[in-house]
Amino acid sequence: MNKNLKEELIMQLATELHDKWRNRLKMNEDWTFEPRIKKTKDKNWIKKNGTDEVDIANTTFVDLPIDRQKENYEAAKLVIDLVYDEVINLNKKGYDLETIEELSSKVHDSWMERNSWKKVSKPELFVPYEELPEKEKAKDRVQIIDAIKKVATRIIKDQNN
Predict the structure, then answer these.
(1) How many helices (H) and strands (E) does the chain have?
(2) Which structural domain range is residue 115 located in?
(3) For residues 13 and 115, what is the distance between their CA atoms, to the nearest angstrom?
């Protein structure tokens, strides 16, 4: 396993997850998003920016404080970890719907663990994967499918060089 490659794929996917979230937000006439101000505890970021508040909607993933990158990073790490070895080792030539559903369920379970504090405000999301509305299941599936594509694309690129 190439740890540098894996980390690179995780960072790419984490960036894409943040961008997808941002693209669902309301955009202003000046091409900025409605602000989403959050506090950070990242001392280096605070020192550099002179504040403990960050507008996560108008900040790229790489420019976010570490604690505000965490959710996207952890989600990306999970899905890359779930598919990386299988794709790299070519143990699977493809993923059937059943496998994608199994992996998507793991994505949902992990999200619930990382976001237990949201249980009060979003109780409808704290159910088994099978009971989620189709729209919510699709969010988990997309992460798995994106990870498979990203790893497979990288393998093909590396083989052609």
Answers:
(1) 5, 2
(2) 3-33+66-159
(3) 19
| 104 to 33, 68, 144, 147: CA distances (angstroms) | 29, 23, 7, 11
Q: What are 60's two structure tokens?
A: 């790229």
Q: Is residue 44 part of a domain?
A: no
- Global pTM reads 0.79
Does the residue 72 lie in any domain? yes
The answer to whether 106 and 82 have CB atoms below 8 angstroms apart is yes
**Amino acid letter, residue 106:** K
Site of tokens 């999301």:
125
Q: Is residue 59, in this structure, part of any structural domain at all?
A: no
Q: In this predicted model, what pLDDT tens digit does every residue of 129-143 receive, in sequence order? A: 999 999 999 999 999
Residues 43-78 have pLDDT tens digits of 999 999 999 999 999 999 999 999 999 999 999 999
When divided into structural domains, the chain yields a total of 1
Residue 50 lies in a domain: no
| Nearest of 136, 144, 138 to residue 115 by alpha carbon | 136
